[in-house]
Amino acid sequence: MTLRTVATRPFPGQRPGTSGLRKKTAEFEQPGYLENFVQSLFDVLPGTAGKTLILGGDGRYLNTSAAQIILRMAAANGFGRVLVGRGGLLSTPAASHLIRRHGALGGILLSASHNPGGPDGDFGIKFNAANGGPAAEALTEAIYRRSGEIAEYRILDVPDIDIGRVGTVRLGAMQVEVIDPVSDYANLMERLFDFERMRALLRRGSFCMRFDAMNAVTGPYARAILEGRLGAPAGTVMNGEPLPDFGGHHPDPNPVHAAELMAIMSSRDAPDFGAASDGDGDRNMIVGRGFPVSPSDSLAILAANAKLVPGHADGLKGIARSMPTSRAADRVAAAMDLPCFETPTGWKYFGSLLDAGRVSLCGEESYGTGASHVREKDGLWAVLFWLDLVAARGEGVEAIVRDHWRRFGRHYYSRHDYEEVEAGQAGRLMADLRGRLGGLAGRRLAGLDVTLADDFAYRDPVDGSSSEGQGLRIVFGETARIVLRLSGTGTAGATIRVYFELYEPDPARHDRPVQEVLAPLIALAEDLAGIRRLTGRTRPSVVT
Ligand code: G16
């Protein structure tokens, strides 16, 4: 068994984005590309000798070959133990849980999340720290700096080991434990929710649900929990087999990409409850009969009803949402007299609030909801939370949402994405608008008064770190907002995201078509930002 030190040269652009390093698969297939990034990570970690590492991924193309390389590199870099999910699989929230449970130095997750997979799709790698959460900006920047000067990496010269079976294997001085990816996570869920109550709901012949795993990592989890422990009939989980190319799906659980589930949920004999998760299992979409729930509403509703589930029976400490997420959760926090935090986009910003015990629930407009049980958003957890609420309240999804709107008002909400815009054009558009924000406050636009227009900056109230340039926002008091930002998860060109929110307190006006309600704001954003003029795009690529 020889330890090899391999000479290498830096690859440009290995800077992690919103959630790890995401690139076209072909870029990752370049010899040394993955190795450089992993060695850069190991070089900047505070000591790897004898430490435990968690390793897994969402099953996409390159997942297992990358896992084998990382195992050999971990052994060559002195780790004492690696826990790897069988077949190289671990959902992101399950990995977060394992890091915490085993006191690991951290975890490496092989995923490009909701981005398509396969040789022509995307691949990604991210590091989660000892608290189970995505690496903080200080660490990802250190990795990036190191990747620009790297000259060699270390790897053991040994054949692949068998990670297809649960058991323990030695790799040099390091121990590799191949573990069942599901059981620990499923046990955690049993502690957070009332499984007996959900079992009774699912046993009733009259209640039916469908979960779309989109041929990504949550298939085995959902089968074990929904069809196994909760006794839902076989077939409840659709697209349950993780496939290297996700069966051609774009595994992003929203009404556009989960079209198959949406069609089922809108059919005449639709199930009562529908849900979907993404590539690595951290996102979720909840759908009633013909009735998708907006993720921003979902956060607010879970917060308002949290006491009904065992995991939050003692109440909440606070709520956090990312800046572009609608302010529906703020209203709940105010009514419950809870602290409410507004952070930049990216789950990493919630970590310090959760670690400090300042918040219990967090959520994002991008179909992400989570809590203090792990340090990631958690798709299946959110689905179980909703299912447990349905069981506890004896009401369906739509009834629960409408009741919430009646109590708190409705935040009409939509996001328009312009994908694969030429990066220079997108940068100019943002810079141009940023330069004009100063003159907007105090003006009346689209019949509304602008109370604030700025580029969002955040100072973490726990550790004092600050993040600037987190999105342009034009705020019309409590009534409405327009937000523009560039995505940090795309792999081709730039994606411009435009977010619209309009508050409607009057229940008599809660049934209007979302795009129609938001039309004046949509037209105003076009006027202000000039998307059509500057990019030539006449309509968004995706509207959710
Ligand atoms: C990641 C982050 C999320 C973020 C999302 C969208 O999600 O973990 O916190 O909201 O990206 O980012 P952007 O708007 O920059 O594309 P995931 O599910 O891709 O890991």
Please specify the SSE layout and strand pairing:
Layout: E1 2-7, E2 21-24, H1 25-28, H2 33-44, E3 52-57, H3 63-76, E4 81-89, H4 92-101, E5 106-110, E6 122-128, H5 137-147, E7 152-157, E8 167-171, E9 174-179, H6 183-192, H7 195-203, E10 209-212, H8 218-229, E11 237-238, H9 259-265, E12 273-277, E13 284-288, E14 291-292, H10 295-305, E15 319-322, H11 328-336, E16 340-343, H12 348-355, E17 361-364, E18 368-371, H13 379-393, H14 397-408, E19 410-421, H15 423-436, E20 444-445, E21 448-449, E22 452-455, E23 458-459, E24 466-467, E25 472-476, E26 480-486, E27 494-504, H16 514-529, H17 531-535, E28 542-543
Parallel strand pairs: 3-4, 3-5, 4-9, 10-11, 10-12, 15-16, 15-17
Antiparallel strand pairs: 1-7, 2-6, 5-6, 8-9, 12-13, 13-14, 17-18, 19-27, 19-28, 20-21, 22-25, 23-24, 25-26, 26-27
Helix pairs in contact: 2-3, 2-5, 7-13, 10-11
Bound molecules: 1,6-di-O-phosphono-alpha-D-glucopyranose (G16).
